[in-house]
Structure formats: structure tokens, C-alpha cells
Amino acid sequence: MRLAERDLKTAKELFNDENYDWSLVIAYNAILQAGRAIMFKTGYGLSSSYGHLGVVRFLHAVMGEISKRLVTFIDRARRKRHRVVYEEVGSVSHSEAEKCLKWAKEFAEKRKTL
């Protein structure tokens, strides 16, 4: 969980520096690391062939309908992160980065209850 906390802190700093692309990427990574922590805590592992998508699918199965909006957002952020890292520069708006930070904080809190 320390990785997720580190990434959330870094994402906030990048957001404050108006580096919205990387703020979203790192906030998403905080969510990913928290999701992986949940997987490992519950005795599941992660196949490298599924990577990020495997975490999203696991979270959807475990968190169910209560958190469907959160899991849907995580999957959208996963796809946006891919575009930022591999395809586009400057494609994340202030509001998108802010929303990702909000969800990362919310997910960190939700993770504590699982």
C-alpha cells in the first residue's frame, strides 16, 4: 500500500505543477497499486498476460455493483493512461486530472474497508 500512497502524493504534486498528463498517469498508478494490494491481501495473484486489465476485472468481481462507477472509471483511466504514455502529449485536461485524483483518493479510502 505504500506504493499507492507514494503515487497519490506525487500525482497531487504534478497536478499542482499543472502537469495534468502525468498527474493522471500517476494517480491511475496509485489506484492500480491499491488494487494489486487488495488482490494480494485476498490471496489472489496477477498474471503478467493480463496486467492492468486483470486488476480492473478483479476489482469489478470483488467490489460488485456498489462500486461499479469506480471500476468503470478505473477502466477509462487505464485507457487514457495508455494514450498518454504511448501516443499523445497534452491530452489530459485540468478537470480530467482532477477527477482522477478524486477517484484515487476515494479508492484509497475504500481499500481500507475491504
Topology record:
Layout: H1 2-16, H2 20-41, H3 51-63, H4 68-86, H5 94-113
Helix pairs in contact: 1-2, 1-5, 2-3, 2-4, 2-5, 3-4
If you had to describe this structure to a student in words, what would you say it looks like?
- This protein has 114 residues and is mainly alpha-helical.
- It has one domain: Up-down Bundle (Four Helix Bundle (Hemerythrin (Met), subunit A)), CATH 1.20.120.330.
- Helix content is 78%, strand content 0%.
- It is built from 5 helices and no strands.
- It has helices at 2-16, 20-41, 51-63, 68-86, 94-113.
- Helix 2 (20-41) crosses helix 4 and helix 3 packs antiparallel against helix 4 (68-86).
- The longest helix has 22 residues, at 20-41.
- The radius of gyration is 13 Å and the shape is globular.
- It starts with a helix and ends with a helix.
- The model has no long low-confidence stretch (mean pLDDT 85).
- Domain count, please report it: 1
Radius of gyration: 13 Å
CATH topology: Four Helix Bundle (Hemerythrin (Met), subunit A)
Largest sheet: none
Shape from CA axes? Answer: globular
Spatial gap, N to C terminus: 13 Å
Low-confidence stretches: none
Give me the CATH superfamily: Nucleotidyltransferases  domain 2
Tell me the fraction of residues in β-strands, as a range.
under 5%
Helix content: over 70%
H/E series: HHHHH
CATH architecture: Up-down Bundle
CATH class: Mainly Alpha
- Total count of helical runs of at least 4 residues: 5
Tell me, rounded to a whole number, the average pLDDT.
85
Q: Structural class from helices and strands?
A: mainly alpha
